[in-house]
Specification:
6% strand, 3 domains, HD/PDEase_dom, alpha+beta, 505 residues, Alpha-Beta Plaits, HD_GYP_dom, Hypothetical protein af1432, 20 helices
Length: 505
């Protein structure tokens, strides 16, 4: 019995959520009820039947119109209220009829029964229309293939949750999830295989995620998860839990041995502690995802704001320049979306090498700063050259090769930070002396610049760029080893590959 009552309560709670979702609708329903009750009371107060039959008839018709309108506007909720009102009046009229046997009262009873029939019919039509409307609304925000929310809903819910977080001083976390090697599955095994992987991955993620999380298909093989009020310190644990539970559950969902090899790369960020707005939150989570894939896939990576880390390690005299550099990087991003994320990743790889070489904390900080700012001179390069897909002309190549010099000029105010401008100027020098802009050779090239050269080249190789497709990490390692001694310092190549193989993210 209790279960039936709970089910009934839930049903009417859903009806209230559907039909009373605005203050206007609530006031509207109250007015319908009020007018209907008043008209009912007026009818019940009429005593002289012969003198007032016409008036009662008019009132009864008006009241019937109101309850029918109520059923039309509020479906089963309106019908329920209408039935209570109509049956109450009908009981009063029946009692009157047995006292007076007035034929007019018999007509009134008939009208009430007819009103109940019409009101029920209208309520059924309204309810069906509402169900159809909900289906259409659901289709508008749902990805047809996977059943997850679509990108339209993603932007809508993220914006809504960020507004709520701002009002309530709470947080919103964004997790970007990418299916590793998805293009390979599509190319080799066909789109049916790819579609199957997408559907199954979405099903697993929907099973894993807690209530209150929103799974959206962000595009292609990428999913986005919006989570509210998660503690910043727990974000990596949440993402690692998703990846680990996916590993366990895929045995249950994927029956084919091929599908069991599917893995996920995950990037994440958070508002307001790490990002300031929607665009920044998306950029950070996407950048972190890109980094996770470049680190060998099947990884989780929390976005790291390199500028904030640099801020902690430079003198107070230079603090105001951080904002200027951030603005310059944003300007570059507007011209060439690849460059901003590339600079952050190069900084991370360079720090990995410097730490493996056990350099001092000060030296590591300078290398990190140089990695982040090494391409800042590209702000001087025209957009059509940066994004050109065809082969560059000799003049365009010559122009592009000036960007390390432009970077050095922009960073001149920081020249007292030991070696920074040197590292930035010489990160395209080659170990065999055929690099640019100064043609330095071997150890003539500073250690920081040699580290940046490896980090910069590796990220370029594993990234999709306008004029070239990405390599796998293994292919990039082979390329580094093949060019050790010519383009790269052989020792730094060994240290970097070893560090990448052993690092756990």
């Amino acid at each position: 019995m209790k279960n039936h009552i709970d089910l009934l309560k839930k049903k009417y709670s859903n009806l209230a959520d559907t039909y009373l979702n605005t203050e206007f609708r609530k006031v509207e329903l109250l007015l319908y009820i009020l007018f209907s009750v008043i008209l009912g009371l007026i009818q019940c107060m009429q005593i002289d039947y012969n003198a007032t039959n016409n008036i009662r008839g008019y009132i009864s018709h008006v009241q019937s119109s109101i309850v029918i309108l109520m059923a039309f506007r509020f479906g089963y909720l309106g019908l329920s209220i209408a039935l209570v009102l109509i049956l109450g009046e009908t009981a009063f009229i029946v009692a009157e009829y047995f006292l007076s046997f007035n034929n007019y009262l018999l007509l009134g009873i008939t009208l009430k029964l007819f009103t109940i029939f019409v009101t029920s019919f209208i309520a059924i039509l309204t309810n069906r229309q509402q169900i159809q409307k909900k289906k259409l609304e659901q289709l508008a925000i749902t990805d047809e293939l996977t059943g997850a929310y679509n990108q339209r809903f993603f932007h809508m819910i993220l914006e809504s949750e960020l507004n709520e977080a701002q009002k309530n001083e709470s947080s919103v976390s964004l997790i970007m999830i990418d299916i590793d090697n998805f293009k390979m599955y599509n190319d080799i095994y066909g789109h049916d295989c790819g579609d199957s992987i997408l559907r199954t991955t979405a099903s697993i993620l929907l099973e894993i995620l807690n209530e209150g999380s929103y799974l959206c298909r962000y595009g292609g093989d990428e999913f986005a998860v919006v989570i509210t009020n998660a503690q910043r310190e727990n974000l990596e644990n949440i993402a690692n839990d998703i990846r680990q539970r996916f590993e366990r559950l895929k045995q249950k969902y994927y029956k084919d041995e091929l599908y069991e090899k599917v893995t996920l790369s995950i990037g994440l960020s958070e508002y307001p502690n790490m990002s300031r707005n929607k665009n920044e939150l998306i950029y950070q989570a996407d950048t972190a995802l890109y980094h996770a894939k470049n680190l060998g896939k099947d990884k989780v990576h929390l976005y790291q704001d390199a500028l904030m880390q640099i801020r902690k390690n430079i003198s107070s005299d230079h603090q105001q320049l951080i904002g200027i550099f951030k603005g310059l990087l944003s300007t570059i991003s507007a011209k060439d979306k690849y460059t901003h994320g590339h600079c952050e990743r190069v900084a991370a790889y360079a720090v990995l090498i410097a730490e493996a070489m056990k350099l001092s904390a000060k030296e590591i900080s300078i290398i990190q700063c140089a990695g982040l700012l090494h391409d800042i001179g590209k702000i001087e390069i025209p957009k059509h050259i940066l994004n050109k897909k065809e082969k560059l002309t000799d003049d365009e190549i010559s122009y592009l090769r000036q960007h390390p010099v432009y970077s050095e000029n922009i960073l001149e105010p920081l020249e007292d930070m030991d070696k920074l401008t040197d590292y930035v100027r010489h990160h395209h020098e080659r170990f065999d002396g055929t690099g640019y802009p100064d043609g330095l050779k071997g150890t003539e090239i500073s250690l920081g610049a040699r580290i940046l050269c490896v980090a910069d080249s590796f990220d370029a190789m594993v990234s999709d760029r306008p004029y070239s497709k990405s390599m796998t990490m293994e292919q990039a390692f082979n390329e580094l080893e093949n060019n050790a001694g010519t383009q790269f310092d052989p020792e730094i190549v060994k240290i970097f590959i070893k560090a990448m193989d052993s690092c756990v993210f």
